[in-house]
């Protein structure tokens, strides 16, 4: 594949072309849950970005030390450490944001983007490249969350960053700030990105990660990694065999 | 007694994990295409949620809190859950092959599922006792199942419809999910209404 990716392309790739949220459809839980307002979206995005950059750097530094077999638990420990640091920092300096994001701060640990980038990029590339990748992917995540938060806040409450913009001329649609609105706005945003990229987001979701059983521990672009795919095929094969056995048993019973 | 029923009912309906709290969206969108896989996944989630709560609640209450190590919660919980799921899978494979056949495919996927970690952290933050924690996990799991099964039905109906090309796939699924979530908002006052609180 590409021998020497330019630093710039590593940095910008995560922002637009491979935006983790809008094109790869990863990290959907925080995207939907924390975008009730522009500030919350931005706060969640930046927190995740900090964790992503730090864990990318550390994992890239440790890539030759971590034994292959226990790499996922090792990555999780590194990520969880940084999540705890961010959590304590937020509690100390931005208590309001901390209480607004609440449960979703510890849940950064299980954000598929971070583990995915650790597995797919940081464990194979140099420290500088990994840091750039973390910045790019983090910015892409932050931008997506910010836009979604801003759209939901503007349409749902008529405000942006808490400042009233519509001057109460337009009746705000409160439902957009609630749970159904999250799904709806995200759906519309993905559809827009789809339109702009000629259906790349849906294709990714249908053929790539969503279909793959390992999507939660993987962030690979353009299909699954070979090991993942093998495991998945094996799992499907097993399930089929199990089904056949069941069917035979049922047939016998009838 | 009513107290316990309220905890379960609230977790299933008014605070539904998927449709109200947005936890476990990945499997909700990914595995809800067919009813049987949605059901299998939900069973596995209920199972893992229960054992995870049974393991993490005592750890937090009897080890972390008395020693003032509450800040290690995130690291300890995720590692305990990951190790536990592995252990359960191995044990299941050896001693309960039929159950492993039914749930085994889904178990590794659940390790990094935010719904499982979410319910463990939530139980601690809400200050529930052990029994209440277990019931709230059971409710959360049942709520997950309800959302998955309902949504599998909805998806079966929209799958072959004629959408605008850019709405095909994920966007249409998300908008369908939005309508299902809207219907769950109707449960808003139901608990207060029934139990007269």
Topology:
The complex is a heterodimer of chains A (254) and B (197).
Chain A: H1 7-13, H2 28-33, H3 38-61, H4 71-93, H5 95-101, H6 112-122, H7 127-157, E1 159-160, E2 163-164, H8 179-196, H9 200-208, H10 226-253
Antiparallel strand pairs in A: 1-2
Helix pairs in contact in A: 1-7, 3-4, 3-6, 3-7, 4-5, 4-6, 6-7, 7-8
Chain B: H1 2-14, H2 25-30, H3 35-64, H4 73-95, H5 97-103, H6 107-110, H7 114-125, H8 130-158, H9 170-185, H10 190-195
Helix pairs in contact in B: 1-8, 3-4, 3-7, 3-8, 4-5, 4-7, 7-8, 8-9
Quick overview of this protein structure:
By secondary structure, chain A is mainly α.
Architecture overview:
The complex is a heterodimer of chains A (254) and B (197). Chain A contains ten helices and two strands. Chain A has 254 residues and is mostly helical. Chain A has one domain. Chain A has a two-stranded antiparallel sheet with strand order 1-2. In chain A, helix 3 packs across helix 4 (71-93), helix 3 (38-61) runs antiparallel to helix 7 and helix 4 (71-93) crosses helix 6 (112-122). The longest helix of chain A is centred in the middle third of the chain and has 31 residues, at 127-157. Chain A is globular and about 60 Å long. Mean pLDDT of chain A is 77; it is low at 207-230 and 250-254. Chain B is mainly α. Helices cover 74% and strands 0% of the residues of chain B. Chain B starts with a helix and ends with a helix. The mean pLDDT of chain B is 83. At the A-B interface, helix 2, helix 4, helix 8, helix 9 and helix 10 of A face helix 2, helix 4, helix 7 and helix 9 of B.
């Amino acid at each position: 594949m590409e021998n020497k990716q330019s630093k710039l392309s590593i940095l910008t790739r995560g922002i637009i072309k491979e935006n983790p949220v809008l094109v790869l459809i990863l990290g959907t839980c925080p995207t939907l849950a924390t975008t009730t307002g522009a500030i919350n979206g931005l706060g969640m995005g930046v927190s995740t970005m900090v964790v992503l950059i730090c864990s990318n750097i550390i994992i890239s530094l440790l890539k030759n030390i971590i034994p292959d077999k226990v790499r996922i638990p090792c990555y999780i420990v590194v990520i969880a450490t940084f999540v705890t640091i961010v959590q304590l920092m937020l509690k100390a300096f931005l208590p309001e944001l901390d209480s607004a994001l609440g449960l979703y701060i510890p849940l950064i640990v299980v954000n598929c983007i971070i583990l995915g980038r650790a597995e797919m990029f940081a464990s194979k590339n140099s420290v500088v490249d990994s840091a750039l990748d973390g910045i790019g992917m983090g910015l892409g995540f932050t931008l997506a969350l910010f836009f979604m938060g801003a759209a939901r806040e503007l349409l749902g409450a008529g405000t942006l960053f808490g400042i009233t913009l519509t001057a109460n001329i337009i009746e705000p649609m409160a439902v957009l700030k609630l749970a159904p609105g999250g799904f709806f706005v995200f759906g519309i945003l993905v559809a827009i990105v789809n339109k702009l990229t000629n259906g790349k987001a849906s294709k990714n979701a249908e053929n790539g990660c969503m279909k793959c059983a390992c999507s939660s521990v993987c962030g690979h672009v353009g299909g699954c990694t070979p090991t993942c795919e093998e495991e998945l095929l094996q799992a499907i094969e097993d399930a089929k065999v199990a089904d056949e056995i069941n069917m035979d048993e049922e047939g016998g019973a009838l | 007694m009513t107290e316990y029923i309220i905890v379960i009912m609230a977790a299933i309906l008014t605070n539904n994990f998927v449709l109200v709290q947005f936890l476990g969206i990945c499997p909700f969108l990914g595995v809800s295409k067919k009813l049987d896989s949605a059901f299998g996944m939900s069973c596995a989630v209920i199972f893992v949620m229960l054992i995870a709560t049974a393991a993490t609640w005592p750890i937090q209450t009897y080890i972390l809190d008395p020693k003032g190590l509450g800040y290690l919660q995130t690291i300890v919980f995720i590692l305990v859950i990951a190790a536990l799921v592995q252990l359960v899978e191995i044990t299941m494979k050896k001693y309960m092959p039929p159950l492993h056949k039914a749930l085994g495919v889904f178990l590794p996927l659940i390790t990094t599922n935010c719904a499982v970690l979410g319910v463990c952290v939530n139980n601690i933050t809400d200050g529930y006792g052990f029994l209440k924690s277990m019931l709230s996990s059971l409710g959360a799991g049942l709520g997950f199942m309800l959302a998955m099964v309902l949504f599998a039905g909805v998806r079966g109906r929209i799958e072959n419809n004629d959408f605008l090309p850019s709405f095909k796939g994920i966007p249409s699924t998300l908008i369908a999910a939005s309508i299902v979530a809207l219907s769950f908002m109707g449960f808003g006052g139901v608990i207060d209404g029934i139990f007269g609180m």
